[in-house]
Amino acid sequence: MMKWKEYFPNKELVQPPQFEAEVLCYPKPEIVCDYLSWRQAECHNRNQYNTCFWILVKSGKGEGEGEAHGY
């Protein structure tokens, strides 16, 4: 995070990013940056999925109905 502005010059760091990730020895820092960006996007997508799914379940829809709607 010390070099946040170097790798993300147009994006302000509002709070430290937190997500599960595994970083291996990649040949270039840019590849690590791309990997972490992808993991953050994946985390966001899963969060949206789970939020919608559990709203349906808590509103009385069965788990199968949530899955049938693509949630």
TrEMBL record:
Residues 31-65 form the Thg1 C-terminal domain. InterPro entries: Thg1_C_dom, tRNAHis_GuaTrfase_Thg1, tRNAHis_GuaTrfase_Thg1_sf. Coiled coil: none annotated. GO terms for molecular function: magnesium ion binding; tRNA guanylyltransferase activity. This is Thg1 C-terminal domain-containing protein. It comes from Aegilops tauschii subsp. strangulata (Goatgrass). GO terms for biological process: tRNA modification. PANTHER family: TRNA(HIS) GUANYLYLTRANSFERASE-RELATED.
